[in-house]
């Protein structure tokens, strides 16, 4: 206010003086009197300026006030604007006065820091700059005391990680060679053990010769049971590892406790207890691998009934009841032994192929990673068919399956393996009949199908199959085609009959079916999901089928938010754990994101839908359908790993199998030298672009 008053008055006085000094030579007495009166007013006004000048001096200093007065004479309007700004900035005078009091009370060191921040122009967020300086100073002191901590700044940590991964790879290769050498030495040393007693015989040469004779015979061959019974040694010495079914094991090997060091049961959810227990008795240790969310044991001709004996002691009965009530060896094992979940999913290239199973059956615990081309891919394709459900089959849909097979095989040849899954056996038969009919009518179709059914590589695991939902567990193909089958009948009515899906365990059948694809799923359906009435279904299977059809349609239409909403309906806890898609896991990620964004790169945070999200993905400027580079920071995801191998080796290898090139930014290096770290990122991007295949 004083400054504005001063400038206003000074400007007027200046004008008065100019008027006085510019009096003409022939001025009249009236002009002189008038000028004199103005001069008196000028002097009076000057006196009134003195309080304003004195009031400004404590805040601006005498020199600053003098400069202000001087500038006012040259350009009063400019200084008037300056003083208006000064007035606006002094509205909270008490706060500024309090700041001055604090500054006056600072110690020498604190005052030095304050002057430094003002000198460097760090008036905005100066506290963060001071804290950063303190942290950097502390870090420098700590690193001087520890060589291990200096490894990050010197780049040695990256070299150690690379060497660690190489050594793990080399160790696996050496273990394979060591095992092969050990087995070879073991086989060659058997015949030279003269002191070994076999069934009362001291000469080890004879059973060795007998075994050699039996395996070279052309006729009158011994059965496996007899061969093992008569020549168990040296047979088990030469072949210590056997791959057999539990039934074959029980039939061929003697019921001897600890016959094997280790027994591993795979697909244990389908193994009934009565078949698994005899096999486990023959082993010193047991590993039981399986998935309760997949198919259960099925035996048409037997049932297990524990019965009730009220006179039997309840405590004595409990172990037997647990064994007889368990529907598989897996459920029995889970009740007795420690459990470990294998949560890394390797089969499906795209997360959309497995995410429905992940959320619907595994509470989102499966770890998946999107590939670099996830931006443009449509992993699930919905195709509507105008079919009719008649005699438990849909002929038009079966024809559509044949047309789709022809389309895929013409485009991909033998580079893609294909499987067709139906939801009942009659539709399976209808699809096979339509394929056979078209093979007889179309030579090109016949050649392509024959090629797919009998691959040149001889690998039956990649041959074309047509199966119903009951018997696809264990199968996997690049492309899976679903023939849903259900459709309006000739009168237009859609019946709520879902076959085995509506039985207990029907949801497990659906889980198996929708998780068979490695690269793509085609859903051929003659009904929209809304046409299926599942409200009266006793079990979960039909409801999940409707949810899956809604999900497949949303993914096919590329409406990710709708697909996520459907998944949240299946698993309400979907978004509870971890950062949400599009958010940041740490402040470091956000700062890297902003730096790249300022350089006109398109960057997407937290790529993926599971615990193996990639912190930042840089979209390829030359091909917006794919990512060029993945950036990982040492944030929450990095530090949450249980061990070094998972954090620095297995995770990296998993990402690389999906086509990712990963660039790591250490937070310590970022805070210390942001410009250098950004340069490294830009160099990595430039290198990827220059190495692009032509």
Structure, described:
The protein has 694 residues and is α/β, with parallel strands linked by helices. The protein has helices at residues 2-21, 29-60, 62-74, 76-89, 93-104, 108-119, 126-145, 147-154, 156-190, 205-215, 224-238, 246-252, 273-281, 314-325, 329-336, 351-361, 395-412, 425-441, 443-453, 506-514, 541-556, 560-570, 587-598, 636-639, 644-657, 667-672, 674-690, and strands at residues 260-265, 283-288, 380-384, 418-422, 465-468, 477-483, 517-525, 603-607, 614-619, 627-633, 662-665. The strands form three sheets. A five-stranded parallel sheet has the order 3-7-6-4-5. The protein has a four-stranded mixed sheet with strand order 8-9-10-11, with helices on both faces. Helix 20 (506-514) links the parallel strand 6 (477-483) and strand 7. The longest helix is centred in the N-terminal third of the chain and has 35 residues, at 156-190.
Features:
27 helices; five-stranded parallel β-sheet; single chain; elongated; 54% helix; 694 residues
In short:
This protein has 694 residues and is an alpha/beta fold.
Q: What order do the helices and strands come in, and which of them pair?
A:
Layout: H1 2-21, H2 29-60, H3 62-74, H4 76-89, H5 93-104, H6 108-119, H7 126-145, H8 147-154, H9 156-190, H10 205-215, H11 224-238, H12 246-252, E1 260-265, H13 273-281, E2 283-288, H14 314-325, H15 329-336, H16 351-361, E3 380-384, H17 395-412, E4 418-422, H18 425-441, H19 443-453, E5 465-468, E6 477-483, H20 506-514, E7 517-525, H21 541-556, H22 560-570, H23 587-598, E8 603-607, E9 614-619, E10 627-633, H24 636-639, H25 644-657, E11 662-665, H26 667-672, H27 674-690
Parallel strand pairs: 1-2, 3-7, 4-5, 4-6, 6-7, 10-11
Antiparallel strand pairs: 8-9, 9-10
Helix pairs in contact: 1-2, 1-3, 1-4, 2-3, 3-4, 7-8, 9-25, 10-11, 12-13, 17-18, 17-19, 18-19, 20-21, 21-22
